[in-house]
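Example record for the data management plan.
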Amino acid sequence: MKHLRNSFFILALFYFANSSMLVSQWKETNGPYGGKVECFAVSGAMTFAGTWGVGVFLSTDNGASWVPINNGLTNYYVSAISVSSNSIFVGTYGGGVFFSTNNGANWKSITTDLNKLHIITLLSSGNRLFISTDDDYGGVFLSTNSGVNWTPVNSGLSNYAGSVFSLAISDTNIFAGTFGGGVFLSTDNGQHWNATALNNNDVLSMTVSGSKLFVGTRNNDVFLSTDNGANWQTISSTQMKGWIYSLAIKDSNLFAGTGDSAVFLSTNNGATWTSVRTGLANTEVHALTFSGNNLLAGTLGGGVFLSTNNGKNWGSSNNGILNTEVRSFTNIDTNLYAGTYRGGIFLSSDKGATWHSIGLTDEMVLSLAISGSNLVAGAYGIFVSSNNGEIWNSTNLKQNSVYALVTNGTNVFAGTYTGVFRSTNNGINWTSTSLTNIIINALAINGQNLFAGTSGSGIFLSTNSGASWSAVNNGLANLAVHTIAISGSNLYAGTSGGLFFSTNNGTNWIPINTGLLNTSITSIVVSDTNLFVGTYSGNVLFSTNNGSSWRDISSGLENVYFDVMAIVNNDLFVGTFTRGVWTRPLSQVITSATLSPTELPKKLTLLQNYPNPFNSTTQINYELPCKSFVILMVYNTLGQTVATLVNETKPAGDYSATFEAKGLPSGIYFYRLQYSNSIQTKKLILLK
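Corresponding structural encoding:
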């Protein structure tokens, strides 16, 4: 289940592929620190942390400092870790199971025989290794020889075999926590499963202490059984908000990590609970464990937090962990501000050599701007600081995702999930413009011309500060606009279907895609006559002739994803999805880039949607080797069509379709790609 914790945050993935450059000059900066920590395991003096995107880290000082240990690990999305005797087992989402017999110095894949790669959770005890997967026809599997061979052990789990999100062992009893079916019990190593009395719940976490079995669920509840599941009592507190992602117990202290209210402590088996979150900046806690006397919390966005007094006080403990998802940039002079996913805002004044947090530590900061002396942050609402992040104040623009910010004098414009808003006093107060009920992905301004890029209706222009708008889409062949940039009289629009160029304020658009390795454009920055774009497939491309030809400058970025770019003075910065901020001098880019050839897909490929599971919106990507008629449809489990995403002839290339599940209930759905005489189908999970 660990991977489900990432289903809401992420709107897109961008992989930096290798290019033909001979010289690599990209450099990873020293931050921002933190990120997504999904799981822990402890073996003696060693503590292992599994992250979502940068693999496994080891601490030998009870969580005070960390080092990466990923040699041989080919998938860095770690969903579970378990230690048994001298072996460490790691479950990944997409790469199967790996194990190490030398404390993580080397890893070896052990799922060749299994062919199930999407691991939800795993548990080892003695020579028994149990895993659960959510692959097609997945479920629970058992290996008694360290993964050389695997046996499915799903009898009795019925429809819940592919949704076992937690496992626990107590002597000869094995418990499986399922999403929708509650807790199942096996007394014969999983050969047969029987439902316990807790049989209609979404179980996310379990822990065992003697005869006590504690269970955390999606509905903010904690349950306790003292008779192997025959009877249960609810022991949660009404103060707990969000899913119960993690449970940990030591002596009489029971801790619960929640999805929206940090950590709670009970000293009487759940009869009463106390919030223990002082210093714990992130409220979504995915993992809890004890390392010595230290209590560690793995969070979504803030990395690891450590408490030495049973949760009374917490401090960040991310020395060595750089796993932040950077979603936005802004700068003034040499100060570069980076907005992160659930990690807040960070500031660097020395080209990324050092970073420090300046607040909003539990927000997904999607956009940033500077207006006068105010730093304006767009998250789920807008926040303003007049003292460089020491104090943040919320504004009257609340409960609305803010994807873009742009300034013009004292005017600040915000592109949101429901249209464009305007502030006339440096972001303090906001009113709606006339462009409403539409998703705004991008904003750009040039004098009196304000441009708004939408998710499916193209670009709108206002010449009167948003009082009225007109569509300017002539020649814009794709109306899903991700980004807009302006350089002098040149206007650039990056869409799902290519890069477009206008010299007359959008009256006409011209495609400039020749030589682009991928035509789904996610970011654009301009420096003088130098044009840089980022693509969905992971390339950073560079043109000195206004897009007539392109050079790939991606080489040297090591297995990272990106969402935003910025130019500060003479340096290019990239904000990545899992590895913080990377940088490169513009002088090296301009002098060392070499032309990279375009490659078309060699076979039909339907990729797994992302994020998955998802809430409301997800992306489905597919690759076509040649021109053909394409149908992409989404079905429910009854075989009923719930959406038709594509129904047209398309040339060879890489494509992305957006599935918006508004009005649909949570559950499992299937999407099918029909192309020529071929059909490919995959499963997706909607969680609201």
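Summary line stored alongside the record: The radius of gyration is 25 Å.
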